[in-house]
Every structure is written in C-alpha cells, then in structure tokens.
Amino acid sequence: MENANAVTDNKAERRFELPLGEGQTAFVQYEAAGEGALALMHTEVPEGYEGRGVGAKLIEGAFQILQAGNLKIIPTCSFVAAYLRRHPQYQSLVANETRGGGVTSVPEAD
Fold first, then answer.
1. Which residue from 72, 22, 79, 90 is spatially nearest to 56, judged by alpha carbons?
2. Which residue from 15, 47, 54, 59 has the highest number of Cβ atoms inside 10 Å of its Cβ?
C-alpha cells in the first residue's frame, strides 16, 4: 500500500484516489459545491483493505490536496464527518455554512 502522498485528484471522475496495487483503488467521490468548495459525497475502500487505515490515508491525502488548493469541504459522507471529528486540525477546511455546531450537524449516512 502506498502513502497518503500517493492520493491524486482524478478530475474526470470527480474523485480523490489512492492506488492500492493489484488494480485496486480507494476513492472519495466529490461534487462542486459553490465557489471554492467541494462536497465529499462517498468514500469507498475495496474489500480486503477495510479496517487497515486505507480510508484514513485517503482522506488525509485528499485534505492535503484541498488545503494546497485553498478549497473548502462540505462533508456529506459519514466517514469524512467521522474523520473530521477525530482530527480537529482539519476543521478549517469545513465550509462555514456547514460548520454551525461542528461536523456533528452533518448527516450521518451516505
């Protein structure tokens, strides 16, 4: 498995990807959500890689790309929302309109 720096933005597919080898890829799907913001919609980790920290590495790498691009997020994916609760250092990435009471106001389901 590769590190979080291997996360790339596949703009054509509108998703951040983490290649895992053997043709497997973990990804988080996104949609444009206004000027300078992306809604992170759904995270998917291939079976066999679940529970091994792949999702966390994917989200961390995606957040690094977003920070470098000065983009904000709307965490509609429950995995992304949970990651944000565990890693408050990324709260500054959350778009103001979703920050209200923190990411706890974000829906819990994909």
1. 79
2. 59
